Amino acid sequence: MSRVEVDRVSKHYGAVRALDDVSLTFEDGEFFGLLGPSGSGKTTLLRAIAGFVEPDAGDIRFDGRAVRDVAVHRREIGMVFQNYALFPHMSVFDNIAFGLSVRRVAAAEISRRVTEMLGLVRLGGFEQRRPRQLSGGQQQRVALARALVTKPRVLLLDEPLGALDKRLRQQMQIELRQIQREVGITTIFVTHDQEEALTLSDRIAIFNEGRVVQLGAPHAVYERPSSAFAASFLGDANFFAGRVSTAGGQIETDGGRRIATFDALPPAGARITVAVRPEKMLLEAGTAGERDTPNRWPGVVKQAVYSGSSISYRVDVGTEIVVFAQNQSAQPLELGTAVAVSWSPLHSVVVESSP
Amino acid sequence: MGKAGIILVRGYLVLLLLFLYLPIAVMIVMAFNQSALYQLPFVFDLKWFASLAGNQRLLDAGFNTIEIALINTVIATTLGSMAAVVFARYSFRGKTLMQLLLFPPITIPWLIIGNSMLFMFYWIGIRRGIVAMLLGHVALSLPYVIIVVGAQFKSFGTTLEEAAATLGASPWQAFRRVTLPMVAPGMVAAALFAFAISFDQFVISYFLAAPGVTTLPVEIYTAIRKGYTPEINAISTIIIVVSMGLMLLVARFYRFGGER
Amino acid sequence: MRRTARRRLAIVGLTAPAYLWLALTIFLPLSAMFYFSFLSALPLPGRTVSVTLDSYRTILTKELYLINAKRSLLLGIHVTIGCIVIGFPAALALAKYVHGRWREAVFLLIVLPFWSNGLVRTFSWTMVLRRDGLLDWFVRLFIPDAPSFDLLFSYPAIIIGLIHAYVPYMILTCYVSLQAIDDSLIEAARSLGASTLTIFRRIILPLSLPGLIAGTILIFVPVIGSFMEPAILGGKDAIMLGPIIERQFSASANWPLGAALSFMLLAIVLAILAAAAPILRPRLQAT
Question: With an 8 Å Cβ cutoff, are C27 and B107 in contact?
Fold first, then answer.
């Protein structure tokens, strides 16, 4: 169980900067998610930690010791690949035992530990099966068992649940977290699925174009995105551009509305963009807000998309915004209904400002 | 597709297969026919095969053919597999060029390759004979081995070796326990292929053979030029059966190669 | 050792043996042949030789060689067309109208003779084409007193033998192109109102063009340089580049001329390959 430090790591391929001066610390025992769009650098970083990618600059340290000159097979890591990479010509038992046999562990010991691991991933009895006889979820568990049985210092997961269907994925997410807690291993995983990142991680880092755009606990990063990119990549957001108003704690949008916020604001007159998440907004039918009331605007329902547990509305408030409502009444609002859209100043998040 | 259409398609393919196999079939049948002038009616006789056993020239040529083919197989498969590993695992400057260089042996007419080898070996002092033919056969086999083994690598990708590395296997251990078992079927297919290429090779052998030191195809050619006898049919039958048998084996190994 | 250095060593060390072998047996010899084509005679000990353009001059001036070059090219064209006519429908049948295990079986059957001994296959055609051979026997089943076709030792015999030898190449390359054509493309075309003929003309044919071109190259090049089939099946009628080149190394013992002729042939081959490279390259990346 190790602490992994990434210190100012850069990597470029020709003109493309895959990693641009990235610094992160993964604490011992943490479940850390690297999130971002394709090509953002998250996978490059994971592979650099594993040792498949050699950084052009910067250092990576396991428990304080630099691993730059340490070959992959000596880093004591465990890795689960996107396609599981199970050895097709070996049984489940031999796959899991591989790391141990390579270290010349005694046969009896191997047997004990493999059986223990199979129990942990709930695949007892599958020892003699071949990978091709297993379902996706089972293969994934074998890959995990194989990576963990050698008691590595760090567990690296490369989009581990990507190949599974939705229901199975949700189930595996819970199992994965349980196993990680039991074993207590520092885990770094890469995903482009924001929901997965949010549910699994102790902390997440959002990547874009080779840089870390925001870092923190899921709750903090989600509720307080620091940039428009973070706000729209993780979840959805309505954006309002405008100027800081002379009235305290308020913004005048370009559309002539007012927004109140508890966030710190630059001086009056500065350009600013505020994000409000759709689920934070409340729709009241039958009343209308007034034009100048901050955070309570009149609007007209333009579209209602029914998704079972929730309904998402497109509302015209001068500009079009999205509002998520929980399906409490089983009666979506009809098109053309006049509504008041309101939200708390707590949820007006300043994402971009310029002096 | 209508009934008539299906019959048309099947009929066409049957005709094509007849076109491909009938001459060979006739040749084989005539090897078992008693008549020395290929006359009918057909009378079964093994005498032409029997006379082969007494034909010292053919026996020597046969021995040479097999000897060269075996050595060719070992050398070509080893060298070719090594190169295939590099192409599958690494990307580097000049890789495309190197892959392109594999094409001349396959695409340049053997006539040109044959006589250019003649010049080269004459120049550096290698006499015509077994060594010269071996040098030529390996050169012809190498591209095919590299392609066949390379394709086997492609179908498995590099992640398995990466996984082995993360599990603590040194490069050698990973090679021995993961890479090798997976490529094995491809290597066997390539080896059989190399053997067949050498076994059947005529043009290069023709140029590089020396008086008294020839291979079966060269002897058969000389015999044909002198005049047809069913003895030629007999030896040809043996050769074509061995040859096709080998390719059937290659097909088995290549198709069922590895666990899918 | 640093990782990059180790890597470099592995790359060089593993590819060097194979490529050195190829250098010694293919690339250097081609240069040697080029060099020899400029000599007046084979440098035997005790003989003085000089550098000369005589061989090339002979080739370009003497009508014999030009005629032969033309005949070889013509042979290439005839054989290639024959292979297209016979092979393309077969590839189409295999790709679209035969399925499952039958497809594999037929495919294997087509390819099997192709990879077996070419000399023996050519010889087997003599059994069919010679006087009183299979062809005559078959015809006489219906017309007892028919005269012999006696096709052996004629230009048509060479063509038949070469088509038999190379048609599987065409079937293979066309098959690869054709079976890559998704059935949904054809269904979409039909739903848009296209007749079968139109579909063939505007969808199947253009998409199978790479296969046809690849097959053409793979057949044309060896055919113009072939000497075994013309020698066995053509007899005296085998007046083509291949046999002529071969003769320089046996009967005529004019190695420099043989070298020059080979080089001319090689130049033609390389020109064809260079012309076709842009079409073939994307297909190569795919394999």
Answer: no
In sequence order, which residues have a C-beta less than 8 Å from that of residue A76 and are 6 or more positions away?
A: A62, A150, A152, A153, A154, B168
Residue A168 CB-density burial (10 A; 0-12 exposed, 13-18 middle, 19+ buried): middle
Q: What residues does each domain of chain C span?
A: 32-37+47-286
Nearest CB to B111; choose among C15, C22, C225: C225
CA A321 to CA A343: how far, in whole Å?
13
Taking only the tens place, the pLDDT of each residue in A70-102 is 889 999 999 999 888 899 889 999 999 999 998
Contact A73, B166 (CB under 8 A): yes
Cβ <8 Å between B182 and A88? yes
Say yes or no: B241 contacts chain C, CB-CB below 8 A: no
Q: Which chains touch A (3 or more CB pairs under 8 A)?
A: B, C
Which of C7, C37, C120 is the best mutation test for B, with the most CBs of B within 10 A? C120
Identify which of B13, B111, B251 has the shortest CB distance to residue C90: B13
Nearest CA in chain B to C273: B107
CB A41 within 8 A of CB A19: yes
- Gyration radius of chain A over CA positions: 25
CB contacts < 8 A, A to C, total 4
For residue C284, is pLDDT > 60? no
Closest CB to B109 among C11, C30, C265: C265
Interface test with B, best of C38, C119, C152, C280 (most B CBs within 10 A): C119
Strand partners, A313: A304, A323
Chain A interface includes C1 (CB < 8 A): no
Nearest Cα of chain B lies from the Cα of C44 at a distance, in angstroms, of 10
B88/B80 Cα distance (integer angstroms): 12
Two tokens, residue B226:
């002198």
- Domains of chain B (ranges, CATH numbers): 55-253 (1.10.3720.10)
- Report residue C54 as tokens: 């005589």
CB of B243 within 8 A of CB of B93?
no
Contacts of B17 in chain C (CB under 8 A): 106, 109-110
For residue B258, the model assigns a pLDDT of 36
C-alpha R_g of chain C: 24
What CATH architecture applies to the domain C32-37+47-286?
Orthogonal Bundle (1.10)
Q: Convert the pLDDT of each residue in B84-116 to its tens digit.
A: 988 888 888 888 888 888 888 888 888 889 888
Q: What is the ipTM of this complex?
A: 0.83
Residue with tokens 């392609």: B147
| The token pair that represents A334 in the structure block | 């009809």
Structural tokens at position A58: 């910067």
Query: What pTM does this model have?
Result: 0.78
CA distance readout (Å), C181 to C101, C178, C184: 20, 5, 8
Cis amide bond preceding B41, omega within 30: yes
Lookup: tokens for A65: 């010791």
How distant, in Å, are the alpha carbons of B89, B96, B157, C9, C10 from that of C6? 14, 21, 22, 5, 6
Answer whether B170 sits within 8 Å of A88, measured CB to CB.
no
B232 lies within 8 A of chain C by CB: yes
Listed in sequence order, the residues at least 6 apart from A320 whose beta carbon sits closer than 8 Å to its beta carbon are: A302, A314
